[in-house]
Design brief:
The complex is a heterodimer of chains A (about 375) and B (about 550). The two termini of chain A are about 30 Å apart. Chain A is about 20% helix and about 25% strand. In chain A, the strands form 3 sheets. Chain A has an 8-stranded mixed beta sheet with strand order 1-8-9-10-11-12-19-20. The longest helix of chain A is centred in the middle third of the chain and has 14 residues. Chain A is of the alpha/beta class and about 375 residues long. Chain A has 2 domains: about 220 residues, Ribonuclease Z/Hydroxyacylglutathione hydrolase-like (Metallo-beta-lactamase, Chain A, 4-Layer Sandwich); about 130 residues, 3-Layer(aba) Sandwich (Rossmann fold), CATH 3.40.50. The mean pLDDT of chain B is about 90. In chain B, the strands form 5 sheets. In chain B, strands 14, 15, 16, 17, 18, 19 and 22 form a 7-stranded antiparallel beta sheet that branches. In chain B, α4 crosses α8 and α5 crosses α6. Chain B is globular, with a radius of gyration of 26 Å. Chain B starts with a helix and ends in a 5-residue tail after the last helix. Chain B has about 550 residues and is of the alpha+beta class. Chain B has 3 domains: about 140 residues, DNA ligase i, domain 1 (Orthogonal Bundle), CATH 1.10.3260.10; about 200 residues, D-amino Acid Aminotransferase, Chain A, domain 1 (2-Layer Sandwich); about 130 residues, Beta Barrel (OB fold (Dihydrolipoamide Acetyltransferase, E2P)). Classes of the chains: A alpha/beta (about 375), B alpha+beta (about 550). Chain B: One of its GO terms (biological process) is DNA repair.
């Protein structure tokens, strides 16, 4: 039953006037709509039963839509462009314009696409309304607010609260059920302020002007953030890119993110990169490719770098604790800010976040989603 | 402490061996006594503080973080000291400046079980996250940062331009903070006196043979016995005489095997395999029991008469390092062998015999002999270069070990636990089982898996990641840090031998089990049954 089922394409309507829409007083509205929906023939509305977590995605029953499904479906609502959330082959993909552009670039998807601008509300079949709000994770990343029968559910996808010059800042959206990630859901994960981590790169260069610093950073999001933060810190030298970074950086620049002077390693003499910064995907750090760099100091930008052995496992000499995910403080603070009736956890270190919920008298539930990769793995 | 902490952090993240040596040498040169001696001890043999153990750290953390969150964090990091250093709350208000290494050492030594909670907390408050990590690592012994004892000694030798063999030789005569060692190496004082001390000498070790073939004219072959490698030292001086028994790592285990200490009464330093007598094994001379029997005797601080009678220990001698006060290590193996044979009549047969030479005319003939060996006490063969001196450590081409081929069995993964050190945060310790009946015979109530062993090696890093993901996605139950998985993944497990054991529910215990292959393709019901393993018990 979970395979791609041929059904009539649902009609999707975008409320263009929604951008500044005031939220209705919730209690009243909920009662009214719940009452109304009991007359609906295909009623799946009571107590959030309309939102169904499955191992390979979250299913919105009345709309016959999936959120971030890991297999091809008729209609998919996609939070952001990372491969464990976005994939090709769907009948219709509903996502932000940036996410759709990223998907087109990465997965060559030309599916029927429906644009969802931040703050706009889309009407799905079965009286479900979806609103995309910024998640602060990568360019175009969104949380999705679903409203049905007076009940509000927010799916965060992946998110962070720290400021990031490459994407819109996370917006706290009040809801009844908050479906969150927990990639760094352990109290030991506290990401330090990014300025200090960026300074580690420039300090290493200053100490070893004859060497280069090779930074392993995920090609979508992390790489561009590191570059943008280097620029913000006043680093104006060219930054050299592994070939796998080129098109995504260009896409970011097309979307107005200034990354400064970028050059390709492939077009550069080895000695010209002495004293310079080179960015590559984490997988290239210990690859033969890296041996062509001038005496590189191996750095990696990842939240896992907080744990020494994790850095050692990666053969990293210069660990940079930089993450596009919320750390423990952000995860717990966000649950308090959103203040939902229930917190559902999609993936990550869910045991610890559940424990935190328990300690704070909050209802929590682990969804055990599969196929969600840890950052940079 | 800050300089030591910075050194530790740099060592953790440095890959190149030469760079590690340089970093340590630089630290040792630039740091005054006794700080550098304590640091060297921490990096090599480790320091031991009676009151400061992992338990003390756990107790300390109990008051600062929810115990469930603590154990989840500890489980992920795979290292108590690092977890505590990351989770330690930054102190509010003024604290004393960071201690020096020697101040920290004297504070740690003064702690007792009741004072440790308060005093260790005060000490941690004085340090930043890196300092806390270095302090807790130093305090609890094992650094686990990829620095071997040998590397530490090599760095010391490099720092002061002395030979690492000399460092090895004097090392065991001295105690931290090694002030005499620094006085000798750094200031040119007289070397430490090692005469008439029942001192441990570093063992000569072997490389695996691999695909190498050697000529039997150049090499002699011996059985590799499955016990523990020991060194027996007897010295006589004006103060009287003393015998000591050392394990491979140089630990004094005399108290565990008093009968052997009593048995050696002539001045000598001997190298051999400690075994337990066994009637069932039928080995060539005297018969040795399996490692399983020896295990009953290991790790005991005192030994009962019953133990001595039931599991009598003896040493099968391989080599002689000193005989009648003369150091014979510079002689070739054949000459040392002659000396050892000459010593045998002076040693009680009840507790000593000599490891027989395996005669083979050619390498091919030796290979046949090895194939035929199924004696439980034999791990394989040793090949020793006939003219090689006895040199400390592993020197290429002098000694080889040629283990016999392992036994194989297909088992099903049942439980997984996270590893530590290099494997930190990955599920890398696996318990696997075999069927106690025919899993396809549903009518008889089917079959159950019974755990038969545990392994944490034999796979590549890439395979580890894949199994780790499998474990996360196929967890059906959790018992603290242990995850029970779906019974769907088959491991081909290699092991050296299997014995009856009361420790496990299956009644069996494997020796040296390791993952040989991961059978992603094989359905679990096709894994082996317990009977198959029973059939491999060789006694």
């Amino acid at each position: 039953m979970l395979a791609k089922v041929p059904v009539t394409r649902p009609t999707i309507k975008v409320e263009l006037s929604a951008r500044n829409r005031q939220t209705k007083p919730r209690k009243e509205g909920a009662d009214r709509e719940r009452f109304a929906s009991s007359f609906h023939s295909n009623s799946m509305t009571a107590d959030f039963s309309w939102i169904q977590p499955h191992p390979h995605g979250i299913y919105i029953a009345p709309a016959d839509c999936w959120i971030d499904p890991s297999r091809a479906v008729e209609t998919a609502l996609v939070t952001h462009g990372h491969a464990d959330h976005a994939r090709g082959g769907h009948g219709t993909t509903i996502a932000t314009p940036e996410t759709l552009a990223i998907m087109k670039l990465r997965y060559a998807t030309d599916d029927g696409a429906t644009l969802a601008l931040y703050g706009e509300t889309i009407t799905l079949p079965g009286q479900v309304r979806a609103t995309y709000t910024p998640a602060g994770h990568v360019l175009g990343s969104a949380q999705i607010l679903l409203e049905h029968a007076g009940e509000r559910v927010v799916i965060t996808g992946d998110y962070k609260r720290r400021s990031d010059p490459t994407c819109a800042e996370f917006a706290v959206t009040p809801c009844d059920i908050f479906i969150t990630e927990a990639t760094f859901g352990l109290p030991l994960f506290i990401h330090p302020p990014i300025a200090g981590e960026i300074a580690k790169i420039t300090d290493a260069l200053a100490a070893h002007p004859e060497r280069s610093v090779l930074v392993g950073a995920y090609a979508l999001g992390k790489a561009q953030r590191v570059i943008a933060e280097l620029r913000a810190a006043g680093h104006t030298d060219p930054i050299y890119l592994h070939g796998a970074m080129e098109r995504m950086c260009a896409l970011y620049q097309d979307h107005g993110v200034d990354l400064g002077d970028l050059r390709l390693v492939a077009d550069t003499e080895k000695d010209a990169m002495r004293g310079q910064i080179i960015i590559c995907p984490p997988s290239a750090l210990n690859d033969r490719w890296a041996r062509r760099m001038p005496d590189p100091i191996t750095a990696m930008a990842s939240g896992w770098m907080r744990v020494r052995q994790r850095a050692r496992q990666r053969n990293v000499e210069l660990p940079l604790i930089v993450s596009d995910h919320a750390d423990w403080t952000e995860l717990t603070q966000t649950i308090e800010d959103v203040n939902p009736q229930e917190t559902w956890i999609t993936h990550g270190r869910e045991d610890a976040l559940l424990r935190w919920c328990e300690l704070h008298q909050r209802k929590g539930r682990a969804l055990a989603m599969i196929g969600r990769e840890d950052e940079d793995e | 402490m800050e300089r030591f902490a910075a050194l530790i952090d740099m060592l953790v993240f440095t890959r190149s061996r030469n760079e590690k040596l340089r970093l340590i040498a630089e630290y040792l040169r630039a740091t005054p006594d006794p700080d550098r001696g304590w640091a060297l001890a921490a990096l090599t043999d480790g320091l031991d503080f009676k009151a400061v153990k992992s338990t003390a750290i756990r107790n300390l953390m109990k008051d600062r973080i929810d115990p469930v969150l603590w154990s989840l964090s500890r489980d992920f990091v795979g290292d108590t000291a690092e977890t505590a250093s990351l989770l330690w709350p930054e102190p509010a208000g003024d604290v004393a400046p960071p201690p020096t290494v020697s101040e920290a050492v004297s504070l740690l030594s003064a702690m007792n079980r009741s004072s440790v909670t308060g005093e260790l907390a005060q000490l941690l408050d004085r340090l930043d996250s890196s300092g806390r990590y270095a302090l807790l690592k130093l305090a609890t012994g094992a650094m686990r940062i990829g620095i071997s004892t040998r590397l530490g000694k090599t760095a010391f030798a490099q720092a002061f331009d002395v030979s690492v063999e000399d460092v090895e030789e004097y090392w065991h005569a001295l105690k931290p903070p090694y002030t005499d060692l620094f006085a000798w190496a750094a200031d040119g004082n007289e070397p430490p006196d090692t005469e008439n001390i029942p001192l441990f000498r570093p063992f000569m070790l072997a490389h695996p043979l691999g695909d190498t073939e050697v000529s039997m004219d150049e090499y002699a072959a011996e059985w590799k016995w499955d016990g523990i490698r020991v060194q027996l030292v007897h010295v006589t001086s004006d103060q009287g005489s003393e015998t000591r028994l050392y394990s491979r790592s140089g630990d004094d285990i005399s108290a565990t095997f008093p009968e052997l200490v009593d048995a050696l009464q002539i001045p000598a330093v001997l190298d051999g395999e400690l075994l337990v007598r066994g009637s069932v094994q039928g080995g060539a001379s005297g018969g040795a029991a399996s490692f399983n029997a020896l295990q009953q005797r290991l790790g005991r601080k005192t030994v009962s008469k019953k133990m001595l009678a039931e599991f009598p220990a003896f040493v099968r001698l391989y080599d002689v390092m000193q005989s009648d006060g003369e150091d014979v290590r510079a002689l070739g193996w054949e000459e040392r062998r002659t000396r050892l044979e000459a010593l045998m009549p002076h040693l009680p047969q009840s507790h000593f015999d000599i490891s027989a030479i395996v005669e083979a005319g050619s390498f091919a003939e030796l290979a046949e002999i090895r194939q035929a060996a199924r004696d439980d006490a034999i791990e394989g063969l040793m090949l020793k270069k006939r003219d090689a001196p006895y040199s400390a450590g592993r020197k290429t081409g002098l000694w080889y070990k040629w283990k016999r081929d392992p036994l194989l069995i297909d088992c099903v993964l049942m439980y997984a636990q996270r590893g530590s050190g290099k494997r930190s945060s990955f599920y890398s310790d696996y318990t696997f089982g075999c069927w106690n009946g025919d899993p396809d015979q549903i009518s008889d109530g089917g079959a159950e898996l019974l755990p038969v062993g545990k392994a944490y090696s034999g796979f590549t890093d890439a395979e580890l990641k894949k199994i780790d993901r499998y474990v996360r996605q196929h967890t059906i139950n959790r018992f603290g840090p242990v995850r029970e998985t779906e019974k769907t993944l088959v491991f081909e497990v290699a092991f050296d031998s299997v014995h009856e054991s009361k420790r496990h529910k299956s009644g069996l215990a494997m020796r040296f089990p390791r993952i040989h292959r991961i059978r992603w393709d094989k359905p679990a019901h096709e894994a082996d049954r317990i009977e198959a393993l029973h059939a491999l018990i060789s006694n």
